[in-house]
Recover the amino acids of this structure.
Protein backbone atom coordinates (compact mmCIF):
# COMPACT_ATOMS: atom_id res chain seq x y z
CA UNK A 1 0.00 0.00 0.00
CA UNK A 2 1.20 3.47 -0.89
CA UNK A 3 -0.07 6.83 0.36
CA UNK A 4 -2.35 9.04 -1.72
CA UNK A 5 -1.73 12.59 -2.94
CA UNK A 6 -4.83 14.76 -2.58
CA UNK A 7 -4.57 17.90 -4.73
CA UNK A 8 -6.74 20.92 -3.92
CA UNK A 9 -7.67 22.22 -7.38
CA UNK A 10 -11.26 23.48 -6.97
CA UNK A 11 -10.13 27.10 -7.28
CA UNK A 12 -8.31 26.57 -10.55
CA UNK A 13 -11.21 27.36 -12.84
CA UNK A 14 -11.73 30.86 -11.49
CA UNK A 15 -8.01 31.67 -11.42
CA UNK A 16 -7.26 30.38 -14.90
CA UNK A 17 -10.40 31.28 -16.82
CA UNK A 18 -11.81 27.74 -16.94
CA UNK A 19 -8.33 26.21 -17.35
CA UNK A 20 -7.93 27.72 -20.80
CA UNK A 21 -4.72 29.44 -19.70
CA UNK A 22 -3.30 27.00 -17.17
CA UNK A 23 0.16 28.46 -17.01
CA UNK A 24 2.99 26.52 -18.60
CA UNK A 25 6.17 27.40 -16.73
CA UNK A 26 8.45 24.47 -17.56
CA UNK A 27 10.56 24.12 -20.72
CA UNK A 28 7.86 22.06 -22.45
CA UNK A 29 4.86 23.93 -21.07
CA UNK A 30 4.74 22.00 -17.79
CA UNK A 31 2.56 23.46 -15.03
CA UNK A 32 3.66 23.76 -11.42
CA UNK A 33 1.27 20.89 -10.65
CA UNK A 34 3.08 18.63 -13.13
CA UNK A 35 6.23 18.94 -11.03
CA UNK A 36 4.38 18.14 -7.81
CA UNK A 37 2.92 14.98 -9.31
CA UNK A 38 6.25 13.92 -10.80
CA UNK A 39 7.88 14.42 -7.38
CA UNK A 40 5.07 12.56 -5.60
CA UNK A 41 5.42 9.52 -7.86
CA UNK A 42 9.14 9.28 -7.20
CA UNK A 43 8.46 9.97 -3.49
CA UNK A 44 6.43 6.76 -3.20
CA UNK A 45 2.84 7.94 -3.64
CA UNK A 46 0.52 5.45 -5.31
CA UNK A 47 -2.68 7.33 -6.18
CA UNK A 48 -3.81 10.84 -7.13
CA UNK A 49 -7.09 12.42 -6.06
CA UNK A 50 -8.10 15.84 -7.36
CA UNK A 51 -10.86 17.95 -5.84
CA UNK A 52 -12.34 20.26 -8.49
CA UNK A 53 -15.59 22.04 -9.36
CA UNK A 54 -18.10 20.19 -11.54
CA UNK A 55 -18.32 23.00 -14.12
CA UNK A 56 -14.79 22.44 -15.39
CA UNK A 57 -14.66 18.64 -15.10
CA UNK A 58 -14.55 17.98 -18.85
CA UNK A 59 -11.84 20.59 -19.40
CA UNK A 60 -9.84 19.23 -16.46
CA UNK A 61 -10.02 15.62 -17.60
CA UNK A 62 -8.93 16.56 -21.14
CA UNK A 63 -6.15 19.00 -20.32
CA UNK A 64 -4.86 17.76 -16.97
CA UNK A 65 -5.74 14.20 -16.02
CA UNK A 66 -4.97 12.73 -19.43
CA UNK A 67 -1.28 13.49 -18.79
CA UNK A 68 -1.07 11.39 -15.64
CA UNK A 69 -3.35 8.42 -16.27
CA UNK A 70 -0.64 6.15 -17.68
CA UNK A 71 1.68 6.93 -14.76
CA UNK A 72 -0.51 6.67 -11.65
CA UNK A 73 -4.17 5.87 -10.79
CA UNK A 74 -6.29 9.05 -10.73
CA UNK A 75 -9.66 9.87 -9.14
CA UNK A 76 -11.70 13.07 -9.12
CA UNK A 77 -14.04 14.39 -6.42
CA UNK A 78 -16.04 17.62 -6.39
CA UNK A 79 -16.45 20.60 -4.09
CA UNK A 80 -19.62 22.65 -4.42
CA UNK A 81 -21.25 25.23 -2.19
CA UNK A 82 -24.31 23.05 -1.53
CA UNK A 83 -22.33 19.98 -0.40
CA UNK A 84 -23.32 20.52 3.22
CA UNK A 85 -24.32 18.34 6.18
CA UNK A 86 -28.00 17.46 6.64
CA UNK A 87 -30.02 20.37 7.93
CA UNK A 88 -27.90 23.09 6.33
CA UNK A 89 -28.54 25.07 3.16
CA UNK A 90 -26.43 27.68 1.38
CA UNK A 91 -27.30 31.14 2.76
CA UNK A 92 -28.60 33.71 0.28
CA UNK A 93 -25.73 35.72 -1.15
CA UNK A 94 -23.01 33.17 -0.38
CA UNK A 95 -20.62 32.91 -3.34
CA UNK A 96 -17.29 32.08 -1.71
CA UNK A 97 -16.32 28.39 -1.39
CA UNK A 98 -16.34 26.89 2.11
CA UNK A 99 -12.53 26.65 2.32
CA UNK A 100 -9.71 24.15 2.19
CA UNK A 101 -10.94 21.78 4.89
CA UNK A 102 -14.34 21.54 3.23
CA UNK A 103 -12.42 20.58 0.08
CA UNK A 104 -10.54 17.91 2.05
CA UNK A 105 -13.85 16.46 3.28
CA UNK A 106 -14.81 15.69 -0.31
CA UNK A 107 -12.17 12.94 -0.41
CA UNK A 108 -13.75 10.78 2.29
CA UNK A 109 -15.38 8.23 -0.03
CA UNK A 110 -12.29 7.53 -2.13
CA UNK A 111 -9.38 7.84 0.33
CA UNK A 112 -8.89 4.97 2.79
CA UNK A 113 -5.14 5.21 3.38
CA UNK A 114 -2.69 7.82 4.71
CA UNK A 115 -2.76 10.84 2.42
CA UNK A 116 -1.04 14.15 1.73
CA UNK A 117 -2.84 17.39 0.97
CA UNK A 118 -1.28 20.06 -1.27
CA UNK A 119 -2.29 23.15 -3.23
CA UNK A 120 -2.39 22.72 -7.00
CA UNK A 121 -0.42 25.85 -7.79
CA UNK A 122 2.50 25.76 -5.33
CA UNK A 123 5.95 24.41 -6.24
CA UNK A 124 6.93 22.26 -3.27
CA UNK A 125 10.16 20.60 -4.43
CA UNK A 126 11.52 17.06 -4.59
CA UNK A 127 12.78 16.70 -1.01
CA UNK A 128 9.44 17.67 0.53
CA UNK A 129 7.60 14.82 -1.23
CA UNK A 130 10.35 12.35 -0.29
CA UNK A 131 10.14 13.40 3.37
CA UNK A 132 6.33 13.35 3.46
CA UNK A 133 6.02 10.10 1.50
CA UNK A 134 8.34 8.33 3.92
CA UNK A 135 6.43 9.63 6.95
CA UNK A 136 3.03 8.65 5.51
CA UNK A 137 4.27 5.15 4.65
CA UNK A 138 4.79 4.62 8.39
CA UNK A 139 1.31 5.87 9.34
CA UNK A 140 -0.78 2.88 8.20
CA UNK A 141 -3.19 1.72 10.87
CA UNK A 142 -2.52 4.75 13.08
CA UNK A 143 -4.97 7.35 14.29
CA UNK A 144 -4.61 10.86 15.73
CA UNK A 145 -1.01 11.07 14.50
CA UNK A 146 -0.62 13.50 11.62
CA UNK A 147 2.19 15.51 10.07
CA UNK A 148 2.96 18.57 8.02
CA UNK A 149 5.97 19.76 6.06
CA UNK A 150 7.46 22.79 7.77
CA UNK A 151 9.32 24.88 5.21
CA UNK A 152 12.22 27.01 6.40
CA UNK A 153 10.83 30.54 6.08
CA UNK A 154 13.95 31.73 4.25
CA UNK A 155 13.13 29.21 1.49
CA UNK A 156 9.62 30.60 0.90
CA UNK A 157 10.01 34.33 0.31
CA UNK A 158 9.14 36.30 -2.80
CA UNK A 159 11.63 38.67 -4.38
CA UNK A 160 8.72 40.84 -5.54
CA UNK A 161 7.19 41.80 -2.21
CA UNK A 162 6.00 40.74 1.23
CA UNK A 163 4.21 37.42 1.83
CA UNK A 164 1.81 35.95 4.40
CA UNK A 165 2.88 32.73 6.09
CA UNK A 166 1.57 30.45 8.82
CA UNK A 167 4.45 30.60 11.31
CA UNK A 168 4.65 27.31 13.23
CA UNK A 169 5.27 26.94 16.93
CA UNK A 170 6.63 23.55 17.97
CA UNK A 171 7.66 21.73 21.15
CA UNK A 172 10.98 20.05 21.89
CA UNK A 173 9.89 16.91 19.96
CA UNK A 174 8.93 18.93 16.86
CA UNK A 175 5.20 18.47 17.32
CA UNK A 176 3.04 21.42 16.34
CA UNK A 177 1.70 23.56 19.19
CA UNK A 178 0.19 26.31 17.02
CA UNK A 179 0.18 28.09 13.66
CA UNK A 180 -0.04 31.88 13.66
CA UNK A 181 -0.81 33.60 10.36
CA UNK A 182 1.67 36.44 9.87
CA UNK A 183 1.39 38.97 7.08
CA UNK A 184 3.93 41.23 5.40
CA UNK A 185 6.93 38.94 5.96
CA UNK A 186 9.94 40.05 3.91
CA UNK A 187 13.70 40.13 3.92
CA UNK A 188 15.04 43.60 4.73
CA UNK A 189 18.76 44.29 5.08
CA UNK A 190 19.41 40.56 5.30
CA UNK A 191 16.87 39.95 8.08
CA UNK A 192 13.47 38.26 7.73
CA UNK A 193 10.95 40.51 9.46
CA UNK A 194 7.28 41.17 10.04
CA UNK A 195 5.31 43.61 12.21
CA UNK A 196 3.13 41.97 14.87
CA UNK A 197 -0.30 43.02 16.15
CA UNK A 198 1.34 45.40 18.67
CA UNK A 199 3.19 47.19 15.91
CA UNK A 200 6.53 45.71 16.93
CA UNK A 201 9.03 44.47 14.35
CA UNK A 202 9.80 40.79 14.86
CA UNK A 203 12.81 39.06 13.29
CA UNK A 204 12.38 35.43 12.22
CA UNK A 205 15.29 33.03 12.10
CA UNK A 206 16.10 31.69 8.63
CA UNK A 207 15.02 28.12 9.53
CA UNK A 208 11.77 29.01 11.36
CA UNK A 209 9.18 26.48 10.10
CA UNK A 210 6.17 27.82 8.20
CA UNK A 211 3.15 26.04 6.78
CA UNK A 212 2.72 26.01 3.01
CA UNK A 213 -0.43 23.86 3.17
CA UNK A 214 1.39 20.54 2.78
CA UNK A 215 -0.21 18.15 5.27
CA UNK A 216 -0.24 14.44 6.03
CA UNK A 217 -3.33 12.76 7.53
CA UNK A 218 -4.89 9.36 8.14
CA UNK A 219 -8.56 8.69 7.25
CA UNK A 220 -9.82 9.34 10.80
CA UNK A 221 -9.22 13.02 10.02
CA UNK A 222 -12.35 12.96 7.83
CA UNK A 223 -14.56 12.06 10.80
CA UNK A 224 -13.21 14.88 12.95
CA UNK A 225 -13.61 17.27 10.02
CA UNK A 226 -17.25 16.32 9.47
CA UNK A 227 -18.10 16.79 13.13
CA UNK A 228 -16.32 20.12 13.43
CA UNK A 229 -17.79 21.40 10.16
CA UNK A 230 -21.24 21.23 11.77
CA UNK A 231 -19.98 23.43 14.63
CA UNK A 232 -18.30 25.76 12.16
CA UNK A 233 -21.52 26.22 10.18
CA UNK A 234 -23.61 26.80 13.31
CA UNK A 235 -21.20 29.58 14.37
CA UNK A 236 -20.42 31.12 10.98
CA UNK A 237 -23.44 30.71 8.70
CA UNK A 238 -24.25 34.43 8.86
CA UNK A 239 -20.75 35.42 7.72
CA UNK A 240 -20.87 35.04 3.94
CA UNK A 241 -17.07 35.10 3.63
CA UNK A 242 -16.17 32.69 6.45
CA UNK A 243 -14.05 29.71 5.38
CA UNK A 244 -13.33 26.36 6.98
CA UNK A 245 -9.55 26.18 6.67
CA UNK A 246 -7.27 23.20 7.39
CA UNK A 247 -5.29 25.07 10.13
CA UNK A 248 -8.60 25.81 11.90
CA UNK A 249 -9.35 22.07 12.14
CA UNK A 250 -5.78 21.16 13.04
CA UNK A 251 -5.68 23.80 15.77
CA UNK A 252 -8.91 22.44 17.22
CA UNK A 253 -7.42 18.93 17.41
CA UNK A 254 -4.08 19.88 18.93
CA UNK A 255 -5.41 22.38 21.49
CA UNK A 256 -7.87 19.74 22.77
CA UNK A 257 -5.11 17.07 22.78
CA UNK A 258 -7.13 14.88 20.42
CA UNK A 259 -4.35 14.56 17.83
CA UNK A 260 -0.75 15.58 17.33
CA UNK A 261 1.04 16.85 14.24
CA UNK A 262 4.71 16.17 13.57
CA UNK A 263 6.47 19.05 11.81
CA UNK A 264 8.82 17.63 9.17
CA UNK A 265 11.83 19.63 8.06
CA UNK A 266 12.64 19.92 4.36
CA UNK A 267 15.51 21.42 2.40
CA UNK A 268 13.13 22.12 -0.52
CA UNK A 269 12.61 25.67 -1.65
CA UNK A 270 8.98 26.62 -2.11
CA UNK A 271 7.99 28.99 -4.85
CA UNK A 272 4.89 30.17 -6.60
CA UNK A 273 3.45 33.06 -8.54
CA UNK A 274 2.38 35.29 -5.65
CA UNK A 275 2.84 38.42 -7.77
CA UNK A 276 2.71 38.79 -11.56
CA UNK A 277 6.35 39.81 -11.35
CA UNK A 278 7.18 36.39 -9.88
CA UNK A 279 6.34 34.51 -13.09
CA UNK A 280 9.66 34.90 -14.90
CA UNK A 281 11.56 34.07 -11.73
CA UNK A 282 9.62 30.80 -11.42
CA UNK A 283 10.35 29.96 -15.07
CA UNK A 284 14.05 30.62 -14.45
CA UNK A 285 14.11 28.54 -11.25
CA UNK A 286 12.48 25.57 -12.95
CA UNK A 287 14.90 25.83 -15.88
CA UNK A 288 17.82 25.89 -13.44
CA UNK A 289 16.50 22.69 -11.77
CA UNK A 290 16.18 21.03 -15.20
CA UNK A 291 19.70 22.15 -16.14
CA UNK A 292 21.01 20.70 -12.86
CA UNK A 293 19.45 17.32 -13.65
CA UNK A 294 16.82 17.53 -10.89
CA UNK A 295 14.04 17.05 -13.48
CA UNK A 296 13.93 15.78 -17.06
CA UNK A 297 13.20 18.44 -19.70
CA UNK A 298 9.87 16.70 -20.43
CA UNK A 299 8.04 15.24 -17.44
CA UNK A 300 5.16 13.24 -18.92
Amino acid sequence: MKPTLFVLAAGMGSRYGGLKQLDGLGPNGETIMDYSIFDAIRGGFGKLVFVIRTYFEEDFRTKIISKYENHIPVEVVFQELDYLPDGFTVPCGREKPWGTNHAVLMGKKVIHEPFAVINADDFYGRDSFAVLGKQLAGMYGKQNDYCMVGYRVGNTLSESGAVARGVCETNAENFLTGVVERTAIERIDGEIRFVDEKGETIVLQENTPVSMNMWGFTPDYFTYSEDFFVQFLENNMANLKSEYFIPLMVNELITKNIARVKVLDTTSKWFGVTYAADRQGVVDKIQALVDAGEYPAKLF
